[in-house]
Amino acid sequence: MISVATTYEIVRSRFERAFDVLEVGADPVLRVSEHADYQANGVMALAKRLGRAPRDVAQDVVAALDLEGLADVSVAGPGFLNIVLTTPFLDERLRTLHSDERLGVERVTTRRVVLDYSAPNVAKEMHVGHLRSTVIGDALARMYRFAGCEVVARNHVGDWGTPFGMLIEHLVDLGEDQAIAALSIGDLDGFYKDARATFNDSDDFKDRSRARVVALQGGDPETLRLWHVLVHESIAYFSEVYAKLDVTLTPEDVVGESYYNERLQGVVDDLAAMGLLVESNGALCVFAPGFTNRDGEPLPLIVQKSDEGFGYAATDLAAVRDRVDRLGADEMIYVVGAPQVQHLEMVWAVARMAGWLPETVRCEQAVFGNVLGPDHKMFKSRSGESVKLVTLINEAIERAYLTLDERGTDLDGDAKLALAEQIARAAIKYADLSTERQHDYVFDLDRMVAFEGDTGPYLQYAHARVRSIFRRAGEVASRASTFSLAESAERDLALGLLALPEAFVSSLSTLQPHRLCTYLFDLAQRFTAFYDRCPVLASKGAIREERLALCDLTARTLKLGLGVLGIDAPEQM
RNA sequence: GCGGCUGUAGCUCAGCGGAUUAGAGCAUCGGUCUACGGAACCGAGGGUCGGGGGUUCGAAUCCCUCCAGCCGCACCA
Predict the structure, then answer these.
(1) Most buried in the list A22, A183, A325, A517, measured by CB within 10 Å?
(2) Nearest CA to A123 among A175, A155, A170, A156?
(3) ipTM
(4) Hey, is A171 helix, strand or coil?
(5) Rounded to an integer, what distance in angstroms lies between the CA atom of residue A93 and that of residue A37?
(6) Chain A 101-160 contacts with nucleic strand B (CB below 7 A)
C-alpha cells in the first residue's frame, strides 16, 4: 500500500526544510491555529538559540520557504508564522482524500499488540468500573487493528482465588440448577452477596469454604467441575453484556487467572535460580529497586505468600512471560484502574530483572481514573450502591426508544429496537471515551444517556443527516469534483476533513480515545454549520457536485472515526 | 511519611510552551425555522485556570513550594 502523506506532513516538511537553512533539525512547531490554518511557532526558540531578533529570523524562514503555491505565509506578532493554505492545494488534498478508503490514515508497520482489558470477576456483577476498562480497551483494540496492528485481546478474568471456596459452597447449598438459574438471569450480585453473607454468619460455612479452596487447589475433580459451572455461566453472562455493548471481546479472549496456575511454580523456581528471590517474613519476594513502603523500606513484590499460596504478582508475572514468549508481543497494553499502577510497574520491573521482558517490548498502562458517585466519593460495590452495567445499558436503551417514539420513526419492531440499542451504545460509550482517561469520572446517568450536545447520538445524528441527503438525491456517492470552497463554512469543513490522520495518530499513540472524540465532535460541528448555510440538493451544477463530495467525505469520516471507537453510525435515526 | 493522579465557568469537561475576548457541552437568557432531519444553528451572560514564587519575549501549560481531594504503599486480586 502506498502511504499517503497527510496535509499536515506536507506542510510541515516544507517548513522543516526552510528551518534547516538556519539550523539543521530545528523544529518548526507547526500547529493548527485559530488565526490561520496552521501556525509555526518554532521561530521563537530558534531565534533565542541564534541570539537574533525573532522577527528577523521569521523573515529569513519565509525567504527560505518553497511552498510551491501550497500556502501563503505571513509573520505575525513577535514572530509567529501564519499559514493559510491555498484553494488549489486544498482542492488537490481533498481529491486525494476522496479516492482514499482510509481517508489519509496510514497503516503502521505491523506490530503484535497484546491488549489486556475488561477483566471482570467470575460470579461478580459487572459495574461501571468495568465499563471503563471494557470500552476504552475495545476502542484501542479497534484503533490498533485499523492502524494495521495485530491485536491479541486478553480478558484477564478473575476466576481463581480464595473466594471460590465460598462461591462453590454457596452453589452447592443452593443446588446446582437453582444456582445456574440465578446466574443465567444475570443475578451475579445476589449470588455473590448471599455467599458473602452466609460466609460471614456461619462458622460451619466458613470451614467448608476453606476446605473447598484446598480441594480446588488440589484439583479435586468434583470441585473443579463445580468451579467450571461458575466460570462457564459467568462468561456466558459477560458475553451477553459485551454483545449489548458491541464489544469485540469473545470467549476465546478470556484467559483468566487460572490459566497461569500451572506456570506459577515455574515463575518461583526460575526467579530462585536467578538468585532474585528473597525470603522475607516467610514470603518469597523480589525487591525491585526504587519501590519503598510507608516506612521508607524496600517494598517487595510478593511472589509466593508465607502460606505457600501464590499471589496475583505471580500470576501477572506468568502472564508477562506468556505474552512475550508464546504470543510474541511487541507491545503490551493494560487498560487498568489507577490503583493498580504501582503493582504493575513492580511486576514489569521484576520481569525486566528476570530478563522476561525485553526492552524492545513496549509496555504501557492505559490508566483510567476512579469512577466516583454523585458525592464525588469512590463508587464501590461494597457500598452496595454502584450501578450494574446492565442497568445502565437498559436505561439508555429505554430512553433511546422513547426518544424515537417522540420524534416519530418509520421503523418498528426489531429494527426500531436495534436502532435504539445503537443509539444507547453510542451515548454510553462516547460519554466514557470522551473524557480524558486519567481523570476521575463522576458517574452521572443523565449525562451518560444524554442525546444532545457533545454526545454520541449527536455525532450519529450528524452522520444520519448527511446520509439522508444521499437518500433523497438517489445517488450512491458523489464523483470527485473540483473543490472551490467559496463559502467559509465549506472551507472550515474541508480543513476538518483533512485533519483526521493527525487526530487518529495522536489519539492512538497516547492511548487517549478522547482525542479522537474531540476531533469528531469538532468535525460534526463544522458539518452542521455547513449544513445550515450551504444548501446541497438545491444547488446547481458544480457547486452541487462539490457539496455532495464534501458531504460524502464527512459521512465517511464520521463513520470511520465512530467505527474505530466502537460506535455505530446508522443510516437514519 | 513516601509515591502517583487530580484541582479550569453553576454542573460535566477540552485545552498540543504562545498572540486583544482561556474554549466546548449542559443549565440560564435571547434569537433562527417555506432549501437537505430542530437530537440542529446563531448569540449573550458566567472564569483571580487551587494559592504563591520562578524560568521565559510569553505560562492554564515547564520548574519549585504550599493548600485541598482521591488512590497506592507485604502476603484479597
Answers:
(1) A517
(2) A170
(3) 0.95
(4) helix
(5) 14
(6) 121, 158, 160
Is the C-beta of residue A403 closer than 7 Å to nucleic acid chain B? Answer: yes
Distance of CA A277 to the CA centre of its chain: 36
Residues 254-273 of chain A in contact with strand B via CB under 7 angstroms: 257
The predicted-structure confidence for A527-536, as pLDDT tens digits, reads as follows 999 999 999 9
d(CA A196, CA A204): 13
Scanning residues 324 through 343 of protein chain A, those with a beta carbon under 7 Å from any atom of strand B turn out to be 338-343
pLDDT tens digits along A188-225: 888 998 999 999 999 999 999 999 999 998 999 999 99
Q: Which helix (H) or strand (E) holds A551?
A: helix A541-564
Contact between the CB of A31 and strand B at under 7 Å:
yes
What number of CA atoms fall less than 13 Å from residue A29's CA on the CB side?
9
CA quadruple A560, A561, A565, A570: dihedral, nearest 10? -60
Which has more confidence, A555 or A376?
A555
| pLDDT tens profile A506-516 | 999 999 999 99
Contact, A82 CB vs strand B, < 7 Å:
yes
Residue nearest to nucleotide B24 (CA to C1'): A454
pLDDT band for position A480 (50/70/90)?
low
Which bases of chain B come closer than 7 Å to a protein CB? Answer: 1-7, 11-19, 24-27, 35-42, 56-58, 69-77
A362-368 and A331-337 beta bridge pairing: parallel
A 433-452 residues, CB < 7 A, strand B: 434-436, 438-442, 444, 447, 450-452
Cβ-based burial of A325 (10 A; exposed 0-12, middle 13-18, buried ≥19): exposed
Q: Within 521-560 of chain A, which residues have Cβ less than 7 Å from strand B?
A: 521, 525, 528-529, 531-538
* Number of H-type helices and E-type strands within chain A: 21, 13
Residue A526: all three cell numbers together: 463544522
